[in-house]
Amino acid sequence: MYLNYSPIIIYTVLAIILVVAPLIIQSLISPRSNKGGEKLTSYECGEVPEGNAWVKFNVRFYVIALSFIIFDVEVMFMVPWAVVFQELGFHAFVDLFIFITILLVGYAYVWVKGDLDWVKMKMKYAHGRYEELSIKEEN
User: Fold this and answer.
1) Residue 47 predicted with pLDDT over 90
2) pLDDT category of residue 101 using cuts at 50, 70 and 90
3) CB proximity list for 124: less than 8 A, separation 6 or greater
4) Which of 6, 37, 58, 114 has its CA 20 to 30 Å from the CA of residue 43?
5) Per-residue pLDDT averaged across 103-126, rounded?
6) What is the set of domains in the chain, with CATH numbers?
7) Which residues contact 135 (CB under 8 A, 6 or more apart)?
8) Exposed (0-12), middle (13-18) or buried (19+): which is 128, by Cβ within 10 Å?
């Protein structure tokens, strides 16, 4: 009865060994001295690092990246549809038309909201180097 579980036990032991073995090898061959100074600086592709490593990025980078991923995945859904379009008939055409309409509404929403503009001309809460782009309140 326990022979049925032998592949699971073997894979579990192998997985544990593959996780623990590199950690043990690394601790054995790593240098024990000279772990300060230049060794603790962050690696910047051969360049001298400037400033703090915890720089806050503008949220526009993430919004544009997420928009790209969303629209890219949606286009990927159209490929299987195009392969079997003739077999599915008019119903598939209507389904894809609704799908593309929803996709275009989302695209229009992102465009109107201004998230596709790389450089926004005015910002509501501009601080730091974006201070000159802030919307001035008139009293």
Assistant:
1) no
2) very high
3) 134, 135
4) 58
5) 75
6) 2-29 (no CATH), 59-133 (1.20.58.1610)
7) 122, 123, 124, 126
8) exposed
